[in-house]
Amino acid sequence: MSRSFDSAAAPCGAPLPQVALLGTGGTIAGVADTPLEQISYQAGVLSVECMLESLPGIDGVARIASRQCGNLPSEDMRPCHWAKLGRDCGAALNDASMCGVVLTHGTDTLEESAFYLHLTMSSLKPVVLTGAMRPATSLSADGPINIRDAVAVAASPGARGRGALIVMNGRILSARTAVKAGTLDVEAFCALESGLLGRVINGRPVFYHKGEDEPPLAGTYAAHAGQERLPRVDVLYACAGMPLDAVLFSMERSAGLVVAGMGNGSMPSDVRKALAGAVAAGRPVVRASRTGGGPVTDLDGYAPFIASGMLSAPKARVLLMLALAEAARQGAQSPQALTAGVRRAFECCHEA
Ligand code: SIN
């Protein structure tokens, strides 16, 4: 089901901008048994049409063309769903009548879908992802206001040329740097090192910095938008005494690996030695951090590996999958050339 509002007049008499609103599921479309229940509920139930009904007046912010593109909890998102999101967003962005796209999405893997779209969408028009921490049936549900804010951002000229954005709880964040950093609070997303791009204040987007002509990494992998299968990349979570056999299992099956390392991306020495062998065999390894704060830098003793910079482990995985897909598209390379190419892909991840 889909609908579009007829052209409404802005105060100056100009037609309101048109925004595509694509529903994909999550808590924002979730339903609990009672309004007091905020934790036990079913995510991905309500349609985007139904969510719009709780937003009287949204047609004064922008004309909305809504479409249901799926309805699932985001823990079930897979690369094939990212590919579909890429195709659906691409179709909406190619429509000359649309000034931007808003995607409603579960928050648990929102940062991965957002970063995938950042890497694969080449349009200057904004793609804005939003979600909710409380189900739609909840007392003080945060979904409706998040949709209103996301639509206001997608309709704003200031959002152009910034790649994919995340709008949650009145904050505007770059998909490149934002992470989910809370389990329950409505203030669940942040970008610790680089901060906010701006805020939505009483429905008005306020950007703190000018957009860039070429935001880092935006559209770098446009050639892979809509590609259903991406190379397998496993994330290994480093911990004291982590079993080596689990590392070897992933090494045998993955085209590349990300280690959510300790501190500044460190790992036990037996794991480090085994993974150096993976790199030599043509499986690039990226070091991220399990700490959740601070960049991961190059480090003595870790020369074969690539530092993730500002990227969280899940984001580093998305970039590595696409970088490996691109390497495969270019044809067979030596392990050294492959790792060097992936290293270049991660270079700008050290900038805020
Ligand atoms: C989900 O990610 O689909 C469930 C959790 C949420 O949306 O907050």
UniProtKB/TrEMBL annotation:
Coiled coil: none
Domain Asparaginase/glutaminase C-terminal: 232-327
Active-site residues, record numbering mapped to chain: T27, T107
Record-linked SUPFAM superfamilies: Glutaminase/Asparaginase
Keyword Oxidoreductase: no
InterPro entries per record: AsnASE_II, Asp/glu_Ase-like_sf, Asparaginase/glutaminase-like, Asparaginase/glutaminase_AS1, Asparaginase/glutaminase_AS2, Asparaginase_C, L-asparaginase_C, L-asparaginase_N
SMART domains to which the protein is assigned, alphabetical: Asparaginase
Pfam families in UniProt: Asparaginase, Asparaginase_C
Record key words, sorted: Hydrolase
L-asparaginase N-terminal domain: residues covered: 19-209
Family of this protein: Belongs to the asparaginase 1 family.
The protein's name in its UniProt record: Asparaginase
Source organism per UniProt: Desulfovibrio falkowii
